[in-house]
Write a structure and sequence with these properties.
- Helix content is 63%, strand content 0%.
- By secondary structure, the chain is an all-alpha fold.
Length: 78
Amino acid sequence: MPARKLTIRLPEEEIEFAKEYALRNGISVTEMIDRYLKNLRKQTRAELHPDIQRFSGIISSNIDAEIAYHEALEEKHR
């Protein structure tokens, strides 16, 4: 996708911070913003449905889910 130009207005202090941060990290301000937005997009996609979040932590972390699944299938089909 071709890049487009975007003009934003920020306080001078924030602009200077962004430039210094980008310089220290060897990237451009544009690349820094692009990475941030892509990260936000990933987080948005990765959010779980509230019903699934309710169940988080119910099953002990020391259970091997794959083994438990196969054991349940064997039990079901006996």
